[in-house]
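Section 5.1 Outputs to date
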Amino acid sequence: MEALLQMILPSAVLPLFLSAVLWWLNRRIAISLWGLPLIWLPSYVWLAGWPSIIPGQASDWLWLLAVISALIITLIRSRYAMIAVLQSMLLALVLLAVAWPVLQYQFDMMLLVELISVIAAGFILYRASSTGLAASPAMSMAISSGGMALVIALGGSLLIGQLAGALASVLAAFALYEVINKFQKPATSLLNLIPVMQLYFVILVIARIFAEIPLGPTALLLVAPLAGLLPATRYASAFSAACVIASLSWLLLTAESSGYY
């Protein structure tokens, strides 16, 4: 029982509570929702411990990514093209730092292609933030993050899976708001979700490299947020769910042993 509580408290209960608090406060005093990734940080610290100021391992880059990404949104909020470029550059730098230990000792062209694909997916979403067409962005990202948590936890890393689960939970109150409004009114904009997307992509790459999540399920999880955030239809989150279900099914049908990170 104690072990179960240690799993769900930081990855589900705490971020869910903070999500509800942020949603309630925002409804009353218009707190900027760029703070969404910041309420993920307590779960991160609980699960991974206090990070080193100079990152020593892959997960140490996540808190820096969350803070810098949120600052970019805050400082140049109305310049969408610049935001897309800066966020893509930030994503590229962090992904390179995460993958460097592997690339340094054994150059892998396939890994480089995968990193470029992730950066391209990020740029597409960051550039799309200027349109605000997504009808249920919080739900789409919550579904994608929750699905990623399941795939990673089952595929090789409980820790990284919990970090992804916490990312889904910080969106829970906002996703519920969209459900109550029958997906006709977004709880937040794509712009506010960019830092969450950044964390999503880097967590996915960490799982791919260090937990050795298979390429097929990883590719489907990469597509999941694009499928849910780019279409203008109010039911676009169902496309994210379809990608998540396909990814999880692929993993279970081709399951093989892997180490834990």
